[in-house]
Amino acid sequence: MSSVTLAVPQNGFAVAMRDYSELIKARVTTLVVVTAACGFFLGARKGGFSSLSWQMLAAMIGVGLVSGGTAALNEVMERDVDARMQRTARRPLPSRRMSMTHGTAVGLLLTLGGSAYLGLTTNWLTGGLALLTATVYLAIYTPLKQISPVCTTIGAFPGAMPGVLGWTAARGRLDIEALVLFAIVFFWQFPHFFAIAWMYRDDYARGGFAMLAVRDQDGQATARHAVLYSFALLAVSVLPPLFGLATFIYLAGALIAGAALTVASFTFLASRTPARARRLFMASNIYLIVMMALLVLA
Fold first, then answer.
1. The 3-state secondary structure of 126-193, one letter per residue
2. Closest CA to 173 of 46, 296, 291
3. Is the pTM above the cut of 0.90?
């Protein structure tokens, strides 16, 4: 009898944790935190001090809180849209496992608390930039997704901020090197997102999103944009050695990784199938991991 009694709260706890994980988009938030950690490491190395510090841990925690809170508020804003799409209909808000009030409270607590935490534990420049990033994402990018394909470009600005936040947490100021990190992640997002958008274009159409892939009947425009931004990414990826962020060993690796991503984009252009889009999506994921590893280790 006791084993049955214990099983219920354990299952309930597991469901609650899964719901919170979905609410804060844990996988995306993890990637944001890792990118911020890379930025902190590079900023600390540039400043000549160790990155292995309580300040780095505080930066990762703060950025994670703001990222998770922003994701939660985004899901609150798009709960009705999510209910119409297969890939998101089972999220806690559209499925009514969690109330809008609860989701909003969690999102506000994490976003505002995380920004304040960053300000108190690192510096107020980082806290302010984190809050500004969340505001642009929620107040401009999120509603724009229902209006115009330019949303992808606008959304790439807050999407490219994690490395900058890590840098400012370490250095306490914005430097040109932080803008180099910003540029790499900014241009990386386009082939990555165009691949996702084509994979789920029917779902996005059901949600009423005004993305390029939804309006692009044969996928040529979507694929051409992926190729164009892959070349732009290849161009900005050579900048870190010029600003003392990496060695020329990094440069060789970056060129190889960039060439591989560009080939994946051209392959998608040649045949705009979901399978080719998924390959581009996977290639973009591998690319970002390789680039962060090269920046830290090379």
1. HHHHHHHHHHHHHHHHHHHCCCCCCHHHHHHHHHCCHHHHHHHHHHCCCCHHHHHHHHHHHHHHHHHH
2. 46
3. yes
* Contacts by 207-213, CB closer than 8 A, 24 or more apart: 207/78, 207/81, 207/82, 207/84, 207/85, 207/88, 208/81, 208/84, 208/146, 209/81, 209/145, 209/146, 210/145, 210/146, 210/147, 210/148, 210/149, 210/151, 211/145, 211/149, 211/151, 211/152, 212/149, 212/152
Question: d(Cα 142, Cα 297) in Å, to the nearest integer?
Answer: 36
- Selection from 59, 66, 62 nearest residue 37 by Cα: 59
pLDDT in tens, 26-81: 999 999 999 999 999 999 999 988 888 999 999 999 999 999 999 999 999 999 99
Burial (CB count <10 Å: 0-12, 13-18, 19+), residue 127: buried
The two three-digit tokens of residue 134, written as one number: 């969340």
